[in-house]
Amino acid sequence: MPSVRALCLALSLPGNVVQQPVSQMAGKKNAAPPKKILFSKPFFLPFVSLCRFSTRISRLNLKTYDYIIAGAGAAGLSLAYYMAQTALKSCSVLLLDMDAKRSNDRTWCFWASGATAHDDIVCHKWHNLYFNGDRWQRGGQLGELSYQMIRGADFYDKMRRELECRPSFEFRQERVLSIEDCGEGAKVETTDAQYWAPVVFNSCLRPKLPPQPGTHFLLQHFTGWWIETEEDRFDPDSGTLMDFRTPQYGSARFFYLLPLSKRRALVEYTIFSPEKLQPHHYEEALQNYLKEQCGLNGYRVCERESGAIPMTDKVMPSKYSKHTINIGTYGGAVKPTTGYAFQNIQQQAKQLVAQLEAGEVLDSRLPQQPRFRFYDRLLLNILQYYGEEAKGIFCRLFRYSSVPQILRFLEEQTRLWQEIRIFATLPIITFLRAVVRVYISRPRSMRTMQPEKQKDVLPAMQAKRKTKKVV
Ligand SMILES: Cc1cc2nc3c(=O)[nH]c(=O)nc-3n(C[C@H](O)[C@H](O)[C@H](O)COP(=O)(O)OP(=O)(O)OC[C@H]3O[C@@H](n4cnc5c(N)ncnc54)[C@H](O)[C@@H]3O)c2cc1C
Predict the structure, then answer these.
(1) What pTM was computed for the model?
(2) Could you tell me if 311 and 55 are in contact, meaning their C-beta atoms sit under 8 angstroms apart?
(3) Contact criterion met (CB below 8 Å) for 393 and 387
(4) Which of the listed residues 3, 67, 407, 447 has the most CB atoms within 10 Å of its CB?
(5) What pLDDT digit, counting tens, does each position of 239-285 carry?
(6) Is the Cβ atom of 176 under 6 angstroms away from ligand 1?
(7) How is the chain split into domains, by residue range?
(8) Into which CATH architecture does domain 67-122+152-210+314-358 fall?
(9) By three-state DSSP, how is residue 6 classified?
(10) Does the Cβ of 341 fall within 6 Å of ligand 1?
(11) What residue's CA is closest to ligand 1, atom 35?
(12) What is the DSSP track for 182-217?
């Protein structure tokens, strides 16, 4: 049975009969002006009425909400969480995810100064961070910053506790098949049902990207082990952000080691390259690293984590369709050259909630200084085509700049003069060559190729360049 709200919506009763959802008010600036066709062109009246009638009838089969959030991962849950802190908490919100989101499917690390919205679930903070080159180590205190970790399971748990006690927020475990505009909103089709809302937020369906010649696409892929030792082996206040003491095989490869206690740590093997490796390659590399660089033989692997994060300068569209806003990874929240996204996702969610509250046009794009896009593009070009040079760049970066300064640069909080000082320590010729490749002598194929084709061809181009055997 359709709800009274659905009936009213379908019959488009005036605002004083059906309370207008906040989302519709928010989208007012976007909404098309009311069509006068029924009154100004009586000739079309029967035909138009028939069409509208059939659309409304079909909408009667849909369950309607003020907002639908398709994909209840980091971005979807964060958005719902911040909505629930404001007047929007009384709006009906449907969260859809194909997964129950109860397992610890990932760990988020980020840096921050002072308290954050999720301080209560931070499982560890490091105040010292180190970087290892072949025969040297740099790093030290982070000052006002701390490097923090949140376990996915704790985040999902907190979000469920915060949202499930609010009757207007509803979770459904269903796979989203499609999202398409339907009338003055969007229809979401899942394996089980169809839903409709004036505004849908999408973090689960990959948006179609228009051709963007000359852009780059890589993956940051990794496998991590949570290990436990029988003796005290770690300093829980000091983490290793990057340890490059490993063969590079033509692409940037490094480890990070984050101890949570004297006997427990997360160690990850990370690679920046167009394609993932076979699972056993990561495992072998982890084994070798723990044995040869950390001198560890007796340890127990308690949990494993692996994943891949897109590293691309392709611009993610803010909208999936007229009434659907992309968020999270698909909303461009991932920093292309580092893969960090958690803090951007929080900022994006707060930005959208502020726009909803103020009745502004919804835009999930985060503000960015164009020069940081330029830096990202150059580094991506080097990582993609001259991956073997990445180690030298990171080594010089950490050798001559302080870790807090580097972290501020990576989160795009530095000033131009500070960036000039950082770039002065880097191999300038490598970057100048990248400028030429990106802006002057782009291969013809890169200039004209469709993004989908680029993705297929790039690994092949990379493979051709490699002379050394890949692990
Ligand atoms: C293993 C891993 C570790 C990471 N570590 C860090 C880190 O340390 N720091 C950092 O800043 N960033 C990290 N990231 C990057 C980024 O923060 C995360 O990927 C983040 O989860 C992205 O949020 P999201 O909401 O866009 O995607 P997700 O969190 O992946 O959420 C998308 C949701 O959509 C659901 N879904 C997908 N398809 C469908 C469908 N058809 N129907 C229904 N539901 C669907 C999925 O189940 C998922 O719950 C990491 C990423 C990964 C993969």
Answers:
(1) 0.84
(2) no
(3) no
(4) 67
(5) 999 999 999 999 999 999 999 999 999 999 999 999 999 999 999 99
(6) yes
(7) 67-122+152-210+314-358, 217-312, 370-440
(8) 3-Layer(bba) Sandwich (3.50)
(9) helix
(10) yes
(11) 71
(12) ETTEEEEEESS-EEEESEEEESSSPPPPPP-TT--E
Q: Which two tokens stand for residue 21?
A: 């959802």
- In sequence order, the β-bridge partners of residue 282 are none
Single-letter amino acid code for the residue at 159? M
Note the pLDDT tens digit of each residue in 111-159: 999 889 999 999 999 999 999 999 999 999 999 999 999 999 999 999 9
Question: How confident is the model over 310-362, as pLDDT tens digits?
Answer: 999 999 999 999 999 999 999 999 999 999 999 999 999 999 999 999 999 99
Burial 255-267, CB ≥16 within 10 A → b, else e:
bbbbbbeebbbbb
Q: Are 259 and 239 in contact (CB under 8 A)?
A: yes
Q: Is 145 in the pocket of ligand 1 (CB under 6 A)?
A: no
Report yes or no: 93 and 170 within 8 Å, Cβ to Cβ: yes
**Token pair 């919804």: residue:** 362
Give nearest CA residue, ligand 1 atom 34: 71
pLDDT for residue 408? 97
Cβ of residue 224 lying under 6 Å from some atom of ligand 1: no
